Amino acid sequence: MDESRYWLAFTLVQGIGPVKTRALVEHFGSLGAAWTASASSLQQAGLDKRALKNVVEARAQLDLEREWARVQKSGAQLLTWNDDEYPVRLKEIEDAPPALYVRGELSSADAFAVAMVGTRLATAYGKEVARTLAGELARNHVTIVSGLARGIDLIAHQSALEAGGRTLAVLGSGVDIIYPPEARALSEEIMQHGALISEYPLGTQPEANNFPPRNRIISGMSLGVIVVEAGLESGALITAAFALDQARDVFAVPGNIFNKSSQGTNRLIARGEAKLITRVEDVLEELQLEQVAQQQATRAVLPEDETERVLWSALSHEPTHVDDLRRNLDLPVSMISSTLIVMELKGLARHVGGMNYIKVG
To answer: Model pTM greater than 0.85?
Structure first.
């Protein structure tokens, strides 16, 4: 049986998340082997009593062929850590979902993605800011990531599409359950110019406790997160917190000090947790996205070689000095420097000063 079916199976088992999935793969070598393993072996792999009980019950009840056919019929793809199409940037975060359900299509262009989030109770000011920033980012070939929620999220998706750009919606439900209901027409358009994405199995309803965890995916897929308007209890602040933990840039739009919808964004700025922005150029310059179209063209024209692959693996989101790369990789500094220049053109690396580089793609 195709290994992907076993990844599907474990997404249907309550209590099996990234940590337990990783432990099972490391212990058994594959989820296929884990699915057929004895209860004692599963216990040795680190499953607690509750998780073990859930796996044993699921194995007795699930018809994997039927569940796989259900996914196919829905028009969704299942992307796992093993798949090349799984978003590279998302895979790097500590608690990356083992599997993603995707309706629509992910693209290499989505490597240049920025998230936009905010309150569901947006003011006229917040709506106009979101509309302007999302549209201008999209016109600069930047993919907009958001959560298909009422307010700022829906405006961000819609504005990206109106500008002829791409947008990705990360759901707190199954990709076959569109919430809010008024977003159904928009979701169809998103699937034509981006994708609906969820870690939750088909049929999962939009329950309140699903939304905070999905926010780590929104930030994890993005180079940075823009918070347009957010109250002190806004879920957008959870996304900003995930972004900071993931070493992503956080941007905030300053707002009216008397308006509750601006209290969260103004606090992010005051605490130094977010960079104040007033125009799209602030984001493009900070993330070095001014030449995204050129970088995308360069990626298509210049083939990846072994030196690029080695360097890209050696880089991280923390600055690494050229001399450290030379020592660790035992490559001539001239080769490293010239390759890094090409990688910058492709948008795979970024020079952050003092001969230090970070990974981008």
So the answer is: no
